[in-house]
Design brief:
Helix content is 44%, strand content 15%. With 280 residues, the protein is an alpha/beta fold. It has two domains: 150 residues, Rossmann fold (3-Layer(aba) Sandwich), CATH 3.40.50; 104 residues, P-loop containing nucleotide triphosphate hydrolases (Rossmann fold, 3-Layer(aba) Sandwich), CATH 3.40.50. The strands form two sheets. It has a six-stranded mixed β-sheet with strand order 3-2-1-4-5-6, with helices on both faces. Helix 5 packs across helix 6. It is elongated and about 75 Å long.
Amino acid sequence: MKKILISWLGRTDLRAVTDGENVGLGSIAQAVLALPFEQLVLLNNFPEVQLKQYLHWLQSIKNIPVSTSQISLTSPTNFAEIYEAAADTVQKCSSDFGVDIDMTFHLSPGTPAMAAVWILIAAGRYPAQLIESSREQGVNNVTIPFEIAAECLPRLRENQDLRIQERCAAIPPNLPAFEEIIHQSDSMKRLVEGARRVAPRNLPVLIEGESGTGKELLARAIHVGGLTPSGSFVAVNCWRTTGRVMCVNFSTPCTGSPPGVKIPPFQPLRCARRFCLLGC
């Protein structure tokens, strides 16, 4: 199981490069020297030149593979931005290194808001170990007290569930694109109402139906009423496409392609990134 340390890059870590006598090694270097991590993942909201200097210095102390994410924050205490960046980074780690990983979040580098977000993520979506470190105390594991875990975390999840239910039950917004869908039956009314509710939300939508039933019309309405209405809407006729062509179009490289030949990404798929892709 691959042991991965995920951490924000802190100001004290940067100071360790030039002022080690006063600040010591910094929290991150302490951790990678004390514990057998095989990969270091850093989130950085400092200028990239400072990150490069730190990485060069760190490699002179401990030769460890490092991957970085450059994060732009409006404020180092903006919980929403910090959570999004941290969750995206952890998700990318799961995708890049697979499920057989042992993740540890470092609480010491960064702001208290960053540490709080790590605790929430570790107790919720992505179970992970927590550590802290200091020049005086060294590196230590952090355990969330039972009283906090039992009292606070279920309430946080409950509040999230209530907000989701309230949004789902909200009156569908008046989206003109749906007026083009002509329908009379109760089942179609329910379908269009559900599509109106889901359109302004960042959720994947699967539309099923026989040929000619208006799947593309409904998909276009959801796209126009969605978060990126000015973006591309790309319709791909998968029914008329063979398995090998689909492989070539949607993956790089394709299984069975000549050795050393890289097939470029499917252009419509690239156009639809962060927008809307309909396969029918």
